[in-house]
Write a structure and sequence with these properties.
This protein has helices at 3-10, 52-61, 69-94, 134-141, 150-155, 165-172, 212-221, 233-236, 242-248, 252-255, 264-267, 269-281, 286-308, 326-335, 354-367, 375-378; strands at residues 13-21, 27-36, 39-49, 103-120, 123-131, 145-147, 179-184, 187-193, 203-209, 315-319, 340-343, 388-390. With 392 residues, it is α/β, with parallel strands linked by helices. It folds into two domains: 3-161 and 353-390, Nucleotidyltransferase, domain 5 (2-Layer Sandwich), CATH 3.30.420; 165-347, ATPase, nucleotide binding domain (Nucleotidyltransferase, domain 5). Strands 1, 2, 3, 4, 5, 6 and 12 form a seven-stranded mixed β-sheet that branches. A five-stranded mixed β-sheet has the order 9-8-7-10-11, sandwiched between helices. The protein is globular, with a radius of gyration of 20 Å. The mean pLDDT is 94.
């Protein structure tokens, strides 16, 4: 163990940067947090948008028909530089000294996630791939970096997702109340926290599409001029087509029991294009199409709660970009009328910062040598310490 790693492992309070670039690939979220045992304070946060050309290249890497090996290699290092620059910029903007940061936790950018097993000889193997080279981040910042959290869980027999339940337990568990933490990013995922729960009582899984299909429809409807439905305004003007919605809710992933995880491979551009062709053939206007896929997100979340949670929660805590979509949130309220709806902002962490904060917490646990997966969420055979450590 290097000197800095050993020193960090022994610290009572650590200042950690969490980095997150999600399935929407719209930019990198950077959070600076102070962590003392299980007390977490957010010091600074910003999302640094990717230039359109870079975002386009990342999205091409996520599609097997357009990904090229030389580009995967190249953009792994490009994103390492982009992530490091974002950290430096946030430190400068917030007045926080780069030298005061003890550790970086980087999720990276997922370009492919394959939780369903494929055969190799006599073995059935899952796999996942995140880019954003942590060696570059550590070299540019001079800070020990923890990255590549998913593979160790997969090596232990899990799906490598969802990873944030460990952080959700640290941040939001309650002695009495049953809570869910509902993230609506590109993909929607839930963490179920029974009152007074221990880590082995947590249930978590991907519920299905979050913003991904809505974003895809907006891009198709506007010829790429817009990337998302700001505030859910287009969906608010449309009428949900219940027949098309019913067809989409029959998707096999939505009926699969947890543990389960998904991504662009099932709900990406190909899915959006297929649904749009059906909708256009039915004569639906763009507003109705966007309203219908927004309802898909809301109803697939509610359906997952009814089918797969042991009990309905007392409180749902929303986070992720979908929490800004008023139409989606109102649809959720209608589906789960007896559940009190809050946001992570009610607990001092903005809905946009929460995922980045989670990876700071995961990195903190890694450097302390603490198991930070949740086998009940991922299906892993045992608790393991996630992440690869790149010394400064």
């Amino acid at each position: 163990m290097s000197g800095q790693i050993a020193e960090n492992a022994s610290k009572g309070t650590m200042r950690i940067v969490g980095l997150m670039s999600g399935t929407s690939a719209d930019g990198v979220d950077v959070a600076i947090v102070d962590i003392a045992e299980r007390e977490v304070q957010l010091r600074a946060f910003e999302m640094f948008s990717y230039p359109l050309a870079l975002r386009g290249e990342i999205l091409r890497l996520c599609r097997p028909e357009s990904a090229r090996l030389d580009n995967i290699c190249h953009y792994n290092f490009v994103l390492g530089e982009v992530f490091a620059d974002a950290i430096v910029k946030l430190c400068s903007k917030s007045g926080i000294s780069l030298g005061s940061i003890d550790l970086i936790g980087s999720h990276g950018q997922t370009i492919y996630h394959s939780p369903r097993q494929r055969r190799h000889g006599r073995k059935a193997i899952r796999s996942t791939l995140q880019i954003g080279e942590p060696s570059v981040i550590a070299q540019r910042t001079g800070i020990t970096t923890v990255a590549d959290f998913r593979p160790r869980d997969i090596a232990a027999g899990g799906e490598g997702a969802p990873l944030v339940p460990y952080a959700d337990h640290v941040l939001f568990s309650h002695d009495r109340l049953v809570r869910t933490v509902q993230n609506i990013g590109g993909i929607a995922n839930v963490t179920f926290l029974p009152g007074g729960c221990k880590s082995d009582e947590i249930l978590a899984f991907d519920t299905g599409p979050g913003n991904m299909v809505v974003d895809g429809m907006i891009r198709l409807a506007t010829d790429g001029k817009q990337n998302f439905d700001r505030g859910g305004k287009m969906a608010a003007r449309g009428i949900v087509d219940n027949k098309l919605l019913g067809e989409m809710l029959q998707h096999p992933f939505l009926r699969r029991r947890p543990p389960k995880s998904t991504g662009r491979e099932e709900f990406g551009a190909a899915f959006a294009e297929r649904i749009r062709r059906r909708a256009v053939k039915k004569g639906l206007p763009d507003t109705d199409i966007v309203a219908t896929v927004t309802a898909l997100t809301a109803q697939s979340i509610a359906q997952a709660y009814r089918q797969f949670l042991p009990v309905m929660p007392d409180e749902m805590i929303l986070c992720g970009g979908g929490a800004h979509n008023s139409t989606l949130v109102e649809m959720l309220r209608g589906e789960l009328a007896d559940v009190k709806m809050l946001s992570t902002g009610d607990f001092g962490i903005s809905v946009d910062a929460k995922e980045a904060v989670s990876f700071a917490i995961l990195a903190w646990a890694t450097i302390k040598g603490m198991a930070n997966n949740v086998p009940g969420a991922t299906g892993a055979s045992q608790p393991v310490v996630l992440g690869k450590i790149v010394p400064a």
